Amino acid sequence: MADAASRLTSLAEELLGGPLPVRLRAWDGSEAGPVGGPVLIVRDRRALRRMIWKPGELGLARAWVAGELDVEGDLYALLDGLSGLLWERDEDTRGLLASARDPRLRAAAGALLKLSGPPLPPQPPAEEMRGRSGGRHTRRRDKQAISHHYDVGNDFYELVLGPSMVYSCAYWASDGPDATLEDAQRDKLDLIARKLNLKEGDRLLDVGCGWGSMALHAAREYGARVVGITLSREQAAYARKRIAEEGLTELIEIRVQDYRDVTDGPYDAISSIGMAEHVGAVRYREYADILYGLLKPGGRLLNHQISRRPEPDEKAYEIDPFIDAYVFPDGELAPMGRTLSTLEDAGFEVRDVEAIREHYALTLRRWVANLERQWDRAVRLTSPGRARIWRLYMAASAVSFERNRIGVNQFLAVKTPVSGKSGTALRPRVWNEKT
């Protein structure tokens, strides 16, 4: 088939109403588009069939995971260009791409059919989440979602996250962006500990404790007594091993437990670091109520949470299909204002909100660099598809943080007693000044 790249480029530009910002190389070796930048490679015509059967992001994602789409050159530059073209277009263009009844889309589908070969839809890649049971954010389904994302091998996470084993936004405090990832993650954990005003003997509940890094820091550096909970058995086993190696088993307990089943309060402090995204809008008020009830009067909550921009019609919000199918099943983002209001509705006094959006872009770029540097080992530890999922999701997320499509915030909230004495310093940002 002659010059498939030119035909695909013309078709895409007709649909999108503008030139493609990237060069395209097709399976027949033909190329079209601007030179000197990243190249989007369509390795196999099956990629077109996926986009016909699942128009939009999910079809593209399946083709990427299957290795039918690839990138030559700067992945970030390609994603940045496509972000402006596809995800930040006006409502008319987004509506066109979403509407199977639109005559332009139907004509485009017909042209794609002629290029795509046999019409049968390819099977989704094995890494796609399937077989979910029960309603969204039930205990059983939450456990399935957590297992899908986290139980893919601790060795793989070590490769991506580095020695800190912290899977949330780092904090470049002292040395700026030139600091190592490990230093920035240590500074983030210490910032949280200081915001919580941890002291020796304090009881800390770490909800969604991951591989135990916050629990270890709080016990080792502050003498806190920590309970960490996770739904991932692989995370729990890894955290317990680390704790034993550091001789901190008397201070730290790691449980495989749902947050809804924690009943042994009161705690002096609670950390929720990258956990609320898994809770879901339907459960978030319940989550806030539970954490409020587990704190003693005057106790503090540090909620570290990714946010999204508000929608003109919040009822129209949909979970990102690629993230939902391949990365964080059932994960939901809320606007910052809704999170703050929910915490207040539960009874908390919100004392501080710190936006650290740019820090997450830096973090993600370091994780991508770790993955790319050890690509062959990552593939051996998981699968080619899984490694490709992580490279795309982390790089695309970095671009989203850089373009202010999503953000991340730390909320410091207090269960202020009736007396009104919150225990918070008159200068609330003193935790940024190490003494």
Automatic annotation (TrEMBL):
GO terms for molecular function: methyltransferase activity. Residues 114-144 are annotated as: Disordered. Its EC number is 2.1.1.-. Residues 133-142 have a biased composition (Basic residues). It comes from the Bacteria. GO terms for biological process: methylation. CDD domains: AdoMet_MTases. Pfam families: CMAS. Residues 156-399 form the Polyketide synthase-like methyltransferase domain. Keywords: Lipid metabolism, Methyltransferase, S-adenosyl-L-methionine, Transferase. Belongs to the CFA/CMAS family. This is Class I SAM-dependent methyltransferase.
